[in-house]
Design goal:
This protein is of the alpha+beta class. The chain has a single domain, classed as 2-Layer Sandwich (Double Stranded RNA Binding Domain). Strands 1-2-3 form a three-stranded antiparallel β-sheet, covered by helices on one side.
Length: 90
């Protein structure tokens, strides 16, 4: 199963960029567009890995609107984050 999360990237007034994954409530930042994309992917991966370790991954994904009960495929964390991100500023 491959899921693409949304990434909302905003240029910061003081320079650099901030980014939010609204489905998960995960945020990050970076000085360049490439850095901010890399950082949000890493933040989402760490968030999902922590949820798995705590035994709440399915609950987190259900809250994000991902129906984990109807799929028979195993949950593979490396496939939950995809690039290019759905939303970005050029």
């Amino acid at each position: 199963m491959r899921i693409i999360f949304t990434a909302l990237i905003k240029e910061a007034a003081e320079g650099g960029y901030s980014v939010l994954c609204p489905e998960l409530g995960v945020a990050s930042q970076g000085e360049t567009m490439a850095e901010v994309k890399k950082n949000i992917v890493e933040a989402v991966e760490l968030y999902l890995e922590s949820a798995k370790d705590l035994g709440i991954l399915e609950e987190i994904l259900d809250d994000a609107g991902i129906d984990t009960k109807t799929t028979k495929e195993p949950i593979v964390l490396s496939e939950y984050v995809s690039t290019p991100l759905q939303a970005c500023l050029e």
